TrEMBL record:
Pfam families: CARD. SUPFAM superfamilies: DEATH domain (SSF47986). InterPro entries: CARD, DEATH-like_dom_sf. It comes from the Eukaryota. It comes from Caenorhabditis angaria. This is CARD domain-containing protein. One of its GO terms (biological process) is regulation of apoptotic process. PROSITE patterns: CARD. Residues 14-76 form the CARD domain.
Length: 104
C-alpha cells in the first residue's frame, strides 16, 4: 500500500512565488505613493526605519517602487501588511489584485 504525504511548500518556494507575484504587480504599484504605504510597513515591522530612509532617498517614484519590491522579496509575512497599507491609503483595487495573485 502506498501512502501519499502532502507537505507544505518550503519557505524558499513560498518566497520565490511571492517574488514572482511582486514582479507581476510592479506596473500596478507605480500608482502608489510609497510615502503612503512604507510608514505602515515600518509600523508593522516588515521594514526597518533605515530601509524607509533608503527608499525615500531614491530619485524617482519608479526607483522607489523597484527598491520596495527588492526589499519585500527579502522579507517574510509582508502580504498582509502591504494589503492593509494599500487599503488604508485608498488603493483597495490594488490590494484586491495582490490578493488574487496570491491565490493563483
Amino acid at each position: 500500500m502506498t501512502t501519499t504525504i502532502s507537505c507544505s511548500p518550503s519557505l524558499a518556494d513560498m518566497r520565490a512565488l511571492q517574488a514572482d507575484n511582486l514582479d507581476r504587480l510592479r506596473d500596478t504599484l507605480q500608482q502608489v505613493n510609497i510615502r503612503d504605504v512604507v510608514p505602515l510597513l515600518v509600523a508593522r515591522n516588515v521594514l526597518r526605519t533605515y530601509e524607509m530612509g533608503a527608499l525615500y532617498a531614491k530619485n524617482s517614484s519608479e526607483e522607489q517602487v523597484d527598491a520596495l519590491i527588492d526589499l519585500l522579496k527579502t522579507k517574510n509575512h509582508w502580504v498582509g501588511p502591504l494589503t492593509d497599507a494599500l487599503i488604508r491609503n485608498g488603493k483597495a483595487p490594488i490590494a484586491t489584485i495582490l490578493l488574487e495573485i496570491q491565490k493563483s
